């Protein structure tokens, strides 16, 4: 697992891949440059509403799924 | 009778095969996703395939748009026509209608009428939201799909059951990545089209369609699946209690106006958004010449056209007198600029 700036020794699973722990959903989205994009985020099988991205804390072992809406085809 | 569908019928059953052969499928967009879906559905024996597209075949399409060949580019064939021709060679026993048309709020309902299911293969959210409105209004299942780079997503939208695209998007994205801005590789096209056609077959087979949005990035080897039932908005203006289908309304359509005697067309997008002209300029600087930016507008030479683009999305395109063509140029320009805030 490459160290990308999160908390050392702690990890979460994002879209099936293990990455280091980020403090909040908002920070995780910022890491992927998705803050201002249309995304649906799920933490441990529960969708996080947009207005709660900043206050939703992540913990070691959390399973996160992110779907990003794009236009193209 | 030949047995061209034998293997498929063995898997799906004769009843479903019958339903496929009675189905009338509308595919909007004959680009990469549309080509792939249309070919699969033609081979599957979909009774009627309607494929609508406003563009013509170019060299840059051939890498991933599987219905087209070099001759189509040389002949400047509209995609809908080239697609119809190729699909008829693949399956002469089905009805295929290629329609060269810019889909907008005033013609989408007529286009969609009498179809069983609609497959989204467009390259922009504005059209997708319009298709979503029309599909919800007419109670037709709508299979959303999109891809850029090596990433894509798909979801079945069933009127009265799943959330609709408007529930999920709420408003138009500020930063619309598209093929022209970031590129795309063909494997993701095949995967997303496969998801979409799978949803069509499952719907025709009478399966329950779960409100699950699936995404996959082939290059990064990442995938996600989210059940979005929770996002169904009871107040949604498209699928809620009091629908007004906002994207079908004329006020929300791109308006074009031919400027008499000026060899120019003005375009005004239906959904006004503020663009950062500086950011737009930096994104397009490699592809245009004579680039000028001031606080009010951006002006540049793009191919043989001079484009004057205002911060609210309004534009005047010089060197063209045809509204339809001006829209195509406008969309290519926006895509190239990454349509950023």
The CATH homologous superfamily of the largest domain in chain B: NAD(P)-binding Rossmann-like Domain
H/E topology pattern of chain A? EEHEEE
Q: State the largest interface.
A: A-B, 19 and 47 residues
This entry's quaternary arrangement is: heterodimer
Structure summary, number of beta strands of chain B: 14
Helix content of chain A: under 10%
Number of beta strands of chain A: 5
Element-level helix/strand string of chain B: HHEHEHHEHEHEEHHHEEEEHEEEEH
According to CATH, what is the class of the largest domain in chain B? Alpha Beta
**Percent strand of chain B:** 15-25%
Radius of gyration of chain A: 12 Å
Proportion of residues in extended strands of chain A: 35-45%
- Terminal Cα span of chain A: 32 Å
For the sheet with most strands of chain A, the description reads: 5 strands, mixed
Write the layout of secondary structure elements.
The complex is a heterodimer of chains A (about 70) and B (about 350).
Chain A: E1 7-14, E2 17-21, H1 25-31, E3 39-43, E4 46-48, E5 63-68
Parallel strand pairs in A: 1-5
Antiparallel strand pairs in A: 1-2, 3-4, 3-5
Chain B: H1 6-12, H2 14-22, E1 24-28, H3 32-44, E2 48-53, H4 70-74, H5 79-90, E3 95-100, H6 108-112, E4 117-120, H7 125-138, E5 142-148, E6 151-157, H8 165-169, H9 179-182, H10 186-204, E7 212-217, E8 222-227, E9 255-259, E10 264-268, H11 277-284, E11 289-293, E12 297-302, E13 305-310, E14 315-318, H12 323-336
Parallel strand pairs in B: 1-2, 1-4, 2-3, 4-5
Antiparallel strand pairs in B: 5-6, 6-7, 7-8, 9-10, 10-14, 11-12, 12-13, 13-14
Helix pairs in contact in B: 1-2, 3-5, 3-10
């Amino acid at each position: 697992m490459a160290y990308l700036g999160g908390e050392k020794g702690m990890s979460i699973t994002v879209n099936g891949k293990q990455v280091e722990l980020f403090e909040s959903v908002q920070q995780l989205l910022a890491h992927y440059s998705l803050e201002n994009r249309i995304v649906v985020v799920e933490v441990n099988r529960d969708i996080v509403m947009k207005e709660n991205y900043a206050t939703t804390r992540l913990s070691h072992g959390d399973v996160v799924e992110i779907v990003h809406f794009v236009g193209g085809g | 009778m030949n047995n061209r569908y034998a293997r498929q019928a063995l898997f799906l059953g004769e009843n479903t095969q019958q339903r496929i052969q009675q189905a009338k499928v509308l595919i909007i967009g004959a680009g990469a996703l549309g080509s792939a879906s249309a070919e699969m559905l033609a081979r599957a024996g979909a009774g009627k395939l309607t494929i609508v597209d406003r563009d013509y075949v170019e060299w840059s399409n051939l890498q991933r748009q599987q219905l087209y060949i070099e001759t189509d580019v040389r002949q400047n064939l509209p995609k809908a026509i080239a697609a119809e021709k190729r699909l008829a060679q693949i399956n002469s026993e089905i009805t295929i209608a290629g329609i060269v048309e810019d889909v907008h709020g005033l013609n989408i309902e007529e286009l969609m009428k009498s179809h069983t299911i609609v497959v989204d293969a467009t390259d922009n959210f504005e059209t997708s939201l319009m298709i979503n409105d029309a599909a919800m209004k007419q109670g037709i299942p709508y299979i959303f799909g999109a891809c850029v780079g090596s990433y894509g997503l798909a979801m079945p939208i069933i009127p009265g059951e799943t959330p609709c695209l408007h529930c999920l998007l709420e408003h138009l994205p500020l930063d619309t990545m598209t093929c022209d801005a970031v590129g795309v590789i063909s494997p993701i096209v095949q995967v997303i089209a496969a998801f979409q056609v799978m949803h069509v077959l499952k719907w025709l087979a009478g399966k329950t369609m779960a409100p699950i949005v699936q995404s996959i990035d082939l290059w990064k080897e990442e995938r996600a699946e989210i059940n979005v039932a929770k996002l169904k908005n009871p107040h949604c203006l498209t699928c809620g209690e009091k629908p007004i289908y906002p994207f079908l309304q004329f006020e929300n359509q791109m308006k074009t106006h031919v400027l008499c005697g000026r060899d120019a067309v003005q375009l005004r997008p239906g959904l006004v958004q503020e663009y950062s002209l500086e950011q737009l300029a930096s994104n397009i600087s490699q592809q245009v010449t004579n680039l000028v930016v001031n606080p009010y507008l951006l002006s540049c030479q793009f191919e043989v056209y001079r484009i004057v683009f205002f911060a609210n999305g309004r534009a005047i395109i010089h060197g063209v007198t045809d509204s339809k063509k001006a829209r195509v140029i406008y969309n290519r320009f926006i895509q190239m600029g990454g349509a950023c805030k």
